């Protein structure tokens, strides 16, 4: 009896494995069975593979295409941005211990630039006075048809360039003050937010 059982077992094992039966359910809830060729109704549908006895061997889920694909570069960029923000917050808390210290930092940074601006404005007044004097001389030479007109106009060129240069330097220093004020105001706002969040 045992010999017959072993022979039957060997016979079953040695038989070629038939293709698994597959099943899917369409949008209307109708089940479709197939072995090799995928029915049109089963495209983009989850399928189940079964053996001859109907035992489920494998489930094939469908990728949810409604969800946007994750861009790894964007994820890494966002993580890097968060890390940089965390580092800035840490530096801010290590730099200042109170709001008054931010006021002192503003004064320390702005005061030398304000002194520089005062010096530029004085030099600008001097150069403008020179230019005004040369312009008056040029007007007088032109009115009297004097041969010195050409020389006076040549003397005016470097003075005019000096005025322009000082005006640009003045504007740059004023912009520096505005940038410092904006940065430290942003630091003040973030510092106060962090202080409130601290335990």
Protein architecture, described:
- The chain has two domains: 18-60, no CATH class; 83-197.
- Helix 3 packs antiparallel against helix 4 (149-197).
- By secondary structure, it is an alpha+beta fold.
- The model is unreliable at 8-18 (pLDDT under 50).
- A four-stranded antiparallel beta sheet has the order 2-1-3-4, with no helix packed on it.
- It has helices at 2-14, 72-95, 99-143, 149-197; strands spanning 21-25, 31-34, 47-50, 56-60.
- The longest helix has 49 residues, at 149-197.
Features:
199 residues; alpha+beta; 2 domains; four-stranded antiparallel sheet; 4 helices; 4 strands
Shape: elongated
**Could you list the spans in which at least 5 consecutive residues all have pLDDT below 50?**
8-18
Helix fraction bin: 55-70%
Number of strand segments? 4
Strand content: 5-15%
Order of helices and strands: HEEEEHHH
How is the largest sheet built, in terms of strand order? 2-1-3-4
Which radius of gyration do the C-alpha atoms yield?
43 Å
> Which structural category do the helix and sheet elements fall into?
alpha+beta
Individual helix count? 4
Q: What is the typical, i.e. mean, pLDDT?
A: 84
Count of individual domains = 2
**Main sheet attributes: strand count, strand direction, barrel closure:** 4 strands, antiparallel
Could you give the distance between the termini? 80 Å
């Amino acid at each position: 009896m045992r010999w017959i059982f072993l022979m039957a077992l060997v016979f079953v094992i040695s038989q070629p494995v038939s293709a698994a039966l597959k099943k899917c359910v369409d949008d209307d809830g109708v089940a479709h069975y197939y072995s090799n060729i995928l029915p049109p109704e089963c495209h983009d549908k989850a399928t189940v593979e079964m053996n001859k006895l109907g035992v489920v061997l494998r489930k094939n889920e469908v990728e949810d295409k409604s969800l946007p694909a994750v861009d790894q570069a964007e994820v890494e960029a966002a993580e890097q941005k968060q890390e940089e923000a965390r580092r800035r917050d840490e530096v801010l808390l290590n730099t200042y211990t109170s709001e008054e210290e931010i006021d002192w930092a503003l004064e320390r940074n702005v005061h030398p630039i304000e002194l520089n601006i005062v010096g530029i404005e004085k030099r600008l007044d001097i150069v403008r006075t020179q230019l005004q004097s040369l312009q008056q001389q040029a007007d007088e030479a032109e009115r009297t048809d004097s041969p010195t007109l050409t020389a006076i106009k040549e003397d005016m060129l470097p003075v005019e360039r000096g005025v322009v240069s000082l005006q640009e330097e003045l504007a740059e220093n004023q912009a520096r003050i505005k940038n410092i004020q904006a940065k430290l105001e942003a630091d003040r706002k973030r510092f106060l937010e962090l202080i409130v969040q601290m335990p």
